[in-house]
């Protein structure tokens, strides 16, 4: 049997992912000339490069695993071929021994392929955030569809591997007043500016989405409740200092048994508590109750 290292088939998901990367880099900006800030464009390009690097690593690891496993299978085939069928008892014992030897690398490969499938699924969700159908046309961040994809990927990782992630929901205080006094065009400019500020404040791996009219939600992988709380209050303070408005926020961490709805509902409950407490503050939901966190966070 001849084995060509370069001829190992690449999973379809990987091919689609790389096609999406190319389409994003060369096509998206041409559709929206001048519509994005240089900072956002650089950040999204870094995100695209990060996704490409992760996909390349997955493909390389799988190729190495297949090479190793092919060597094990080749060795197993040769040993089985040399068994003397006339010595049935001895041949049967040798066959059992060789089967046990090939079983271990086979199970390792199966586990690695399963893990790669989950990683590809996560990176595919990241790629989906670049597509126009998942982009809010006014602010340029993700829309609800993009948010659902990001939450689905994080919930799947949490349920399978126990990874942690959190979300933060922000709402502009008294936004109706801004629209009524200064007009809807100014209100749209405020939404765009706020979305840009949030987007420039997060990590490449985070996902920013417009959740509602004046609500934004940030999905933060590998982040516990405490870390998300600190981020949310730092951002609240920055917005109050640099924009003519304030925001209230609610923070929640993914928990066992969560769905999209239950997780977002906890963040929304915390946000409502922040509004009721006077606005321009952050509450977090512990899983049992919403608590004010300003006193827990240093500027």
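Sequence proposed for the structure above (299 residues):
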């Amino acid at each position: 049997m001849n084995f060509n290292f370069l001829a190992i088939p690449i999973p379809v998901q990987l091919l689609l992912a790389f096609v999406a990367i190319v389409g994003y880099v060369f096509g998206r900006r041409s559709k929206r000339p001048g519509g994005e800030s240089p900072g956002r464009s650089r950040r999204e390009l870094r995100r695209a490069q990060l996704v490409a690097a992760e996909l390349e690593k997955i493909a390389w690891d799988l190729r190495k695993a297949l090479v190793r496993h092919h060597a094990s299978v080749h060795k197993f085939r040769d040993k089985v071929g040399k068994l003397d069928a006339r010595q049935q008892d001895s041949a049967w014992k040798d066959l059992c021994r060789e089967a046990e030897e090939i079983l271990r690398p086979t199970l390792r490969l199966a586990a690695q392929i399963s893990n790669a499938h989950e990683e590809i699924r996560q990176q595919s969700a990241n790629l989906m955030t670049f597509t126009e159908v998942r982009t809010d046309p006014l602010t340029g961040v993700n829309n609800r569809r993009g948010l659902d994809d990001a939450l689905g990927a994080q919930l799947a990782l949490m349920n399978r591997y126990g990874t942690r992630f959190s979300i933060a929901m922000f709402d502009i205080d008294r936004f109706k007043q801004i629209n009524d006094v200064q007009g809807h065009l100014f209100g749209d400019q405020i939404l765009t500016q706020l979305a840009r500020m949030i987007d420039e404040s997060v990590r490449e791996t985070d996902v920013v989405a417009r959740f509602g009219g004046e609500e934004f939600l940030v999905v933060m992988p590998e982040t516990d409740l405490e870390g998300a709380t600190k981020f949310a209050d730092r951002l609240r303070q920055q917005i109050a200092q640099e924009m003519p408005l304030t925001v209230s926020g609610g923070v929640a961490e993914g928990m066992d048994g969560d769905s999209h709805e239950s997780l977002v509902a906890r963040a929304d409950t915390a946000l409502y508590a922040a509004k009721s407490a006077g606005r321009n503050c952050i509450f977090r939901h512990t899983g049992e109750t919403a608590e004010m966190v300003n006193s827990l966070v240093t500027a």
